[in-house]
Amino acid sequence: MKHSLFLLLCFICSLHISATIIHHKSTFSTSEITLYDIKAETPETQIIWADLSPAGNCGDLALPVKFINIAVPCGATNLSIRNLYTQKSDIIALKHPITKISITKTDGTPEEAPKSTPSNSSLNKAHSQVTIVGSENYNNVKDIVTIRIEPLLYDEKGYTLQPFSCIEFDLSYEEPNGDRKS
Fold first, then answer.
1. What's the pLDDT score for residue 123?
2. For residue range 37-79, what is the model confidence (pLDDT) as tens digits?
3. CA distance 52 to 43
4. Among residues 66, 70, 67, which one has the least CA distance to residue 50?
5. How far is Cα 38 from Cα 118, in angstroms, rounded to an integer?
6. pTM here?
7. What backbone torsions phi and psi does residue 174 show, to the nearest 5 degrees?
8. Which of 46, 111, 157, 166 minimizes the number of CB atoms within 10 Å of its CB?
9. 42 vs 98, 100, 174, 178, CA distance in Å?
10. What is the Cα–Cα distance from 129 to 61, expressed in whole angstroms?
């Protein structure tokens, strides 16, 4: 009897732990990608993709990204991305390397990129990048998790772009009382 009761309790707890999933799906229309050749000392290609904008540090590749916010219980811990699924679109060949992020200071002068800027080339990535970039408490009611989605892979050597038309993932976290949600 005790053994059966213990197994039933374990089963109920396992249902509770796996019952909540925060799933997100982003779709991207590759027909909204526009490429501009910039004629400069060194020709470059600027990528514009609908309402996406480049984000990063001065000297990073100017690849469009999407930021989303997801609400989780206040005090949630061990946030992680799981079950990443991506759908690739056709590879796009470029004539020139893509532009890099440049920043203008408040006095109007350009900020200089670090001398040894590590490249954020995605040559060796097998899939799009989805990363948690921050979490902030909202009125002690919820925590807002900010997630960065990169729907383009770039090959610096071959000047090619691999766009993704769909990116899906689950956000996993632990409740403040220790229950694991995924």
1. 46
2. 998 888 999 999 999 999 888 888 999 999 999 999 998 888 9
3. 23
4. 66
5. 23
6. 0.77
7. -110, 135
8. 157
9. 11, 12, 49, 54
10. 14
The label of the residue with tokens 């807002």 reads: 144
The four Cα atoms 131, 132, 134, 139 give a dihedral, to 10 degrees, of: 140
Q: Which band of pLDDT confidence, cut at 50, 70 and 90, is reported for residue 11?
A: very low
Residues 6+ apart with CB under 8 A from 161: 33, 47, 91, 92, 94, 152, 153, 154, 155
Angle at Cα 49 formed by Cα 58 and Cα 98, nearest 5°?
Answer: 45
Name the one residue in this structure whose structure tokens are 């060194």. 42
